[in-house]
Amino acid sequence: MVGGLEVYVPAMAMIGLQFHYAVLAIFTRAALLHGMNTRVFVVYRQAIATLAMAPFALSCKRRPSLRTSLGLKSLSLMFATSLIGVTANQNAYFEGLHLSSSTVTTAMSNLIPAVTFVLATIFGLEKIDVRSLRSIAKITGTVLCVGGAITMALLKGQKLLHLRFLLSKQTFGLHGDNWLLGCGFLLASSIFWAFWMIMQVPVSASCPDHVVSTFWMCLMAAIQSAIFTLVVEKDSQAWILNSALEYSSCLYAGIGIAVSFFIQSWTISKRGPLFCAMFNPLCTVITAMVSATFLHEDLYVGSLIGGLAVISGLYIVLWGKAKEVEGVKEEAQLKTDQNDQISCKTDLEEALLSPHVSESKITH
User: Fold this and answer.
1) Closest to 15 in 3D by CA, of 260, 272, 217
2) Which of 81, 135, 215, 277 can bridge 53 by disulfide, Cβ–Cβ 3.0-4.6 Å?
């Protein structure tokens, strides 16, 4: 029973992360619209994440079984991953969130599975065989997820619930002049995040301890973001947080990213980058549900159709990945059985030959 439950742990962890990302998008956008600087927010977020991970990383170092020797290769991989997959990704993401809206932000992030799928295939992390049903399932599921998310963002149709907004539109943003620029930032962020997921494979191989790798990536990203903000942001007043909303959003985001980095690194080591990326479309569905429930936003037929497509596509991909894991296990078991047969045959031949060897020794 325990072994069966462990199979579902990566999926449950990723579903929980999507709830976190949905709340983060809504919560952070409110703080940004109240005057918090996006670049300063990224610095504070990474600094808090580093402080949150420090005790766990240090405790891991004290245990001999979890000690990890970090060489130049490991640190170089983490630096590059932090620079592109964290520093560049988060600055682009939150700038896009500020210029667009939380709904568009979560919808645009659904490009991540497609980008990750392409990159993983190019780097040989995902195998594609058009004659294989599981490969067709992964391709079909990816298309359904991305198509469903785009449908949720662009197609409205008739209203499902006739509810009025409880919060003003100013709180969560209107379509401004910089709307397209915000979408451009979000597109860049999706590409950067896909790169982060792909890079977790060599990072995990170089540093198997995910607590240590998460700590170093958070630390490097905090330093990189601080340098970038000091160069770009000339107003020293931007570093001052002026409300409880800004303080709480930084705290929530900082602790959240430390936890999410660890969970995603662990899940990627178990199931691969595509598995993690395929859960991103769920964030769009969750955001729509949270917005309708707590913000009393209107839901449309397009949202329902898109949500069903996202969930269906996710299930299809997970089925394909599960079949892939089963196939790998069967191949490993087949090799083990073949090795056992060869070993048994060798032992039998040695047993049959041993009397002759003994007689030869006696004769001599």
Assistant:
1) 260
2) 215
